[in-house]
Write a structure and sequence with these properties.
Elements (H helix, E strand, L loop, with lengths): L2 E6 L10 H19 L3 E8 L4 H10 L3 H18 L6 E4 L6 H14 L3 E11 L4 E3 L17 E10 L5 H9 L4 E3 L1 H10 L7 E2 L1 E3 L9 E2 L2 E6 L1 H6 L1 H4 L8 H8 L3 E7 L3 H15 L6 E5 L2 E3 L2 E2 L10 H8 L1 H12 L5 E3 L1 H30 L13 H10 L3 H22 L1 H6 L3 H22 L4 H13 L12
Parallel strand pairs: 1-2, 1-12, 2-3, 7-13, 12-13, 14-16
Antiparallel strand pairs: 4-5, 4-6, 6-8, 9-11, 10-11, 14-15
Length: 480
């Protein structure tokens, strides 16, 4: 039995969750469910990044305490587990979970003992949205390339992490794929970034600038630990690092695979800063970093100021969790940017889910009820479907995995039209009819098992209908 650790990134809670993070959750969920299907023990983690300045500023703007604001927002992110049918094993909120602060403190001390933390003066351009410093060369027309806002000039005394010490080591790790960054073009971006000299990383903020929110630097109450040093530690704090380390040993130190699923905007933090911190602390490194693209809405970047955020709860209320999962997984996918639109989601629901899959199941089980279900099941239509799906998931290509499943759905619909089992029944060709029903039920069973990681509720209902020849409407007609 293999032991695997799998995580999403932890989002800021300065705003309500939107479909961009839903994409990350469902991609990670597919991987976790698939690995469990293979018989692996999986520790699947999500959570919220609470200790950031942008959260404190959002609370100020809302006119409530930072604690109350974050607790309310974190609750909304927790609820996504039920809304999207996510199978994570643990959820860690960095401001309230008692496991977190001791782990961050221990990680700090380990890096400090290794001579990688020192105090110095810092001047730079800081983007609050990204919670990171930028050089002038990294800006686009003087603004943050991620948020389009002008960074703030900061000058203060901070603690620094000797990131520069690990540059060559990081290049070797990534180019050798000891840390696999996928897809390949993301790996190339990281290696391109590492071609320039790395600057040491500022890992603290003054209490005044941090609005007094966050974890204080051990031994220096005037400084708050930089949110990313804090946040990245969630992956090991949840496993009991610095406390009861049995889970840490099983799912990190001795794990067969350690996987982070992240959005492209935080690649540098996970592929450069996080491995360097782990190297300094003498800890095991992640084995793979899977980077998905961004989601736009009707061609525009998701933005609270534009008012174009889409609530996952709203989408699931209208179409169901599995329909949203399918749309995100197949039509956005795990490797590229993609666009969300209500009209496209409705089109996909009606044509691909209700018509292609839903009607196929209805036709097959209606035949089974009328002529009797098959005694034995076989499937020559799907071939090596399960192996193909597994291969695509392992290659971080969830859209191609669903493409393969839908080719089987299309082939099965064509098979029904070609064989015309109702005609076979009318002509009394009972043996031929039995063969057709055996193929139909067998193929639908294979499709159902292949769909389990992607559309878990739909797969369960499909398999139940096949086993009992019951009438099951997988995707009801939309009410306009």
């Amino acid at each position: 039995m293999k032991h695997r650790f799998l995580s999403t990134a932890i989002p800021y809670v300065n705003a309500a969750p939107h479909v961009g993070f839903a994409l990350e959750l469902v991609i990670a969920d597919v991987i976790a469910r698939h690995q469990r299907q293979q018989g692996d023990e999986v520790y699947f983690l999500s959570g919220t990044d609470d200790n950031s300045l942008k959260n404190a500023l959002a609370a100020e703007q809302a006119g409530v305490s930072t604690e109350a604001f974050i607790d309310a927002r974190a609750k909304e992110f927790r609820q996504l587990k039920g809304v999207l049918n996510i199978s994570y094993d643990d959820f860690l909120a960095t401001s309230t979970d008692p496991r977190h602060a001791p782990a961050v403190e221990k990680l700090w001390h380990q890096c400090d003992r290794n001579g990688d933390i020192y105090r110095g003066n810092y001047e730079g351009l800081y983007c609050i949205g990204c919670e990171q410093f930028y050089t002038q060369d990294e800006l686009q027309d003087g603004v943050c390339p991620e948020h389009g806002s002008e960074p703030v000039a900061i000058s203060e005394q901070n603690y620094f992490f000797r990131l520069s010490r690990y540059q060559d080591h990081l290049v070797r790790l990534i180019s050798s794929k000891e840390i696999a960054v996928r897809p390949t073009h993301r790996e190339k971006e990281v290696l391109s970034f590492l071609e320039s000299p790395l600057l040491d990383l500022s890992v603290s903020r003054s209490v005044a600038r941090a609005r007094g929110w966050g974890l204080t630097v051990p031994g220096d109450s005037s400084q708050i630990i930089y949110v990313w040093f804090d946040a990245l530690a969630n992956y090991i704090s949840a496993l009991g690092y610095a406390r009861d380390e049995e889970a840490f040993d099983t799912y990190w130190a001795e794990a067969d695979r350690i996987t982070h699923v992240i959005g492209k905007g935080v690649t540098r933090f996970h592929a450069v800063y996080w491995p360097a911190i782990l190297l300094s602390a003498g800890l095991r490194l992640p084995t793979e970093i899977l980077v998905h693209g961004y989601l736009t809405v009707d061609g525009q970047k998701i933005s609270k100021t534009r008012g174009n955020t889409i609530s996952p709860s709203d989408a699931c209320d209208r179409f169901g969790a599995d329909a949203l999962r399918y749309y995100l997984l197949r039509h956005i996918g795990s490797q590229r940017d993609g666009d969300f639109s209500w009209s496209r989601l409705a089109e996909v629901y009606e044509h691909e889910l209700a018509n292609d899959l839903g009607n196929l199941l209805s036709r097959a089980t209606a035949l089974g009820r009328r002529y009797g279900p098959p005694v034995a099941l076989r499937s020559s239509l799907v071939g090596g479907l399960s192996l193909e799906v597994a291969k695509h998931i392992d290659e971080f290509a969830v859209d191609r995995a669903l493409d393969a499943i839908w080719r089987a759905v299309t082939a099965t619909n064509a098979y029904v039209n070609q064989t015309e089992p109702w005609v076979l029944a009318k002509k009394g060709k009972t043996r031929d009819l039995a063969d057709v029903l055996s193929e139909l039920y067998g193929t639908l069973s294979c499709i159902g098992h292949a769909l389990i990681p992607f559309l878990p509720s739909t797969a369960r209902r499909l398999l139940s209908a096949v086993s009992s020849s019951s009438s099951e409407q997988l995707f009801p007609k939309l009410i306009r």
